[in-house]
Amino acid sequence: MSGQHPTVISKAPWRQTFEEHVQKLGGPSAEFYFATVTPEGEPRVRSCIHRGFWTQLPENKHNELPKNPAIYESDCPVFTTDARMEKTYHMFATGKGHGDREQSKSGTGGGGPVEAIYWVKDTSTQWRIRGKGWLIAANDIEGGTEAAQNSGTMTVKAQLGRYMRPVGDHESKNSEWSWRREVENQFENLSPGHPISEGKTEEGEALGQKAGHLSDEDLARKNFRVVVITPEVVERTDLSDPENSKRWTYTLAKEFGGPGGNEEKKEQEWNVVETWP
Question: In this protein, which residues make up the domain named Pyridoxamine 5'-phosphate oxidase Alr4036 family FMN-binding (predicted)?
Answer without folding.
Answer: 12-136
